[in-house]
Design goal:
The chain is of the alpha+beta class and 203 residues long. It has a single domain, classed as Methylpurine-DNA glycosylase (MPG) (3-methyladenine DNA Glycosylase, Chain A, Roll), CATH 3.10.300.10. It is 13% helix and 29% strand. The protein is built from four helices and ten strands. Strands 1, 2, 3, 4, 5, 6, 7, 8, 9 and 10 form a ten-stranded antiparallel sheet that branches. Strand 5 and strand 6 form a beta hairpin. Pfam families: Pur_DNA_glyco. Its EC number is 3.2.2.-.
Length: 203
Amino acid sequence: MIMAMKAFPFAASLLPRKFYQRDPLLVAPDLLNKILVCRTDGRAGRIVEVEAYRGADDPAAHSYRGRTPRTAVMFGPVGRMYVYFTYGMHWCSNVVCGAEGDGNAVLIRALEPVAGLDGMRAARPLAKRDRELCNGPARLAQALGISGAQNGEDLVKGNAYALVDDGMRPPEQAVQTTRIGLSKAADYPWRWYVPDNVYISRK
């Protein structure tokens, strides 16, 4: 379905539910170059870095030990946002995927801003350059106004936040590495990013 997103500068298609009904190791690299958009004010960024988390198969996943009040969204319908609070000060945004009940998600680690930059700058006044607006999961959440209020937000319906495809395909040779900042399963190569992109969190 092609639709003109409210307060968005070009037509794009909402990602369908079936996009998310796959293993997170497939969903994660396919999310590269998709766009996360806040529909209320048009702030948007192209996804350039992601990490996959694979439920009971992944000691680093919040869902590894089963469903809890904090992780309930991860075990629910796919295509929803799982937003969690970390270090007592930051929000981070994930996309639930796989099969319902598996506890899988993909962490959005970095965006390349494409619209609503004035709003992002206002939300992140300490960013010295535009490349610092969304180059990390906590930074992009702040830049797009994502908080715990969005936990469980349905990205397929796209009422407030949406993931859309504007026709740009994922890179043919995305860089694949181990994930960042983990003490468990630190050797799992489940991080992908767009090569040579200056907006990723780190190489």
